[in-house]
Fold this sequence. Notes:
Elements: H1 2-5, H2 10-21, H3 29-42, H4 79-85, E1 88-105, E2 109-123, H5 124-128, E3 133-144, H6 148-151, E4 167-179, E5 184-191, H7 213-216, E6 230-238, E7 243-251, H8 262-265, E8 278-288, E9 299-318, E10 333-351, E11 361-370, E12 378-389, E13 399-409, H9 411-424, E14 433-446, E15 449-459, E16 466-467, E17 470-474, E18 476-488
Antiparallel strand pairs: 1-2, 1-18, 2-3, 3-4, 4-5, 5-6, 6-7, 7-8, 8-9, 9-10, 10-11, 11-12, 12-13, 13-14, 14-15, 15-18, 16-17
Helix pairs in contact: 2-3
Amino acid sequence: MWRRAWPYTSLSRAQSCRDLAGFNMPLTFSRAFTLAACVSLSLGVRAALADDDDIPDKNGIPKSSIAHSLPDNGDPGGIRAAAAVRGITYGWTFTGEVFGNASGGTRHESVIEERFDAHIKADLEKLIGAKGLSFYISETQTNGTGGVRRDAVPSLATLSNIEAVPAARLFEVWFEQKFAEDKASLRVGQLAADSEFFISDYSDIFFTSGWASIVSNNLPDGDAAWPLATPGVRLKVETDKNLALLVGLFNGNSAGPGAGDPQIRDRSGTAFRLRDPPLLIGEMQYKYNQDSHADALPGTIRFGVWHHFGEFNDQRFDVNRLSLANPVSNGTPAQRRGDSGIYAIVDQQIYRPHGGDANKGIGLFGRVSANPSDRNIVDFFADGGLLFSGMIPARPDDKFGATFIYSRISDSASALDTDRIAFTGLPQPVRDYELVVELSYQAQIVPGWTVQPDFQYVIHPGGNIPDPTMPVSAIKNAAIFGLRTTVKY
């Protein structure tokens, strides 16, 4: 079949890829995707579903599902088990919370928020005999009476990772196929970068876990992160059980250019944009001492780099190299070609109880990242914390911990604020940094059902931006309380 489609030598295939990709034209995601697909075909890529941390059993039920606590495993008609035999598994997760700031911010806000996620996975080898091929589709629905981050504490960092504009939207949908004796996989479809890139294993219980503020605030519309996925392709190669290499190419603007909230511009998650400048991201992951009988403590180290091929506004100067605060400035920011960043992540267990595995005991985690100052609001990011898992004998499945998120405003953005003071003679806050501290306890009621009280304190919300009700003063530090329940089926 491939000979009919590609009756060329490797050299002629490469030349055809160059022609299809349009090397002499501006780079867009569709052209970059064409090139990536051509290269894959040229290398004979035959390509399946990446390993799941919570693989369903023979009845299609994940270990952490509440179905194990329900009559007939939550499957009285046997539909879920019958589907699993044919390679089809499905599930859903409901998360609801009461969340609000008791002090600080622009006003006091208490909200009820809900997030419902559902997914279907299909092993197409079992279903139709397509060796190594898998399919995945997920939907997310959000509801709420408001949003603390949107309405009261306009932070740079995520405060609640379920907060979003109320909507039902398609999230991820992709095909994946393994090759090279299942040591590599190629995923193609609508993808979310934050599903696999720039994430910490130990931080996932926290309300603030999510796409790092250094990318969510700098890239167009936050780009390729929940609740908006975007067309993309991802290649993963596992050289052995410890080392993995990932490369992802995504359309560089999930909702497309335009004013207003991107979640409203693409409320259904079906924009399927292909012609925006792409985002390219690569990550190396090294895991060690993962076996429960290992003498040393387990950990994971990740290094990553990304580049966006679009145009970005200079944070201080206009096209004539005048400060944007200068009264004679034309107000049009200078354009900077492309944007890049680097990051590193560490997840390290520092204590493991006797007989425990990599997910029990005390874990230390941290992320750091940096990118250019002239075209970004945030130029340095760091977060980290401690997670305690199974440390209370009477509550072996509970988790609790503390984390912080630090986002530094770029020198160029801060300098613009200083310029405004100099040119107007009026006092105003100068943006500098934002720091979010979180304490959280996740109590398991039964497997698949947790209840989680949470406290956060936000210092310099938005990086010390002016309070809209009193521009000469910055928004006050905010104390936020939350109570969340999560049910996974």
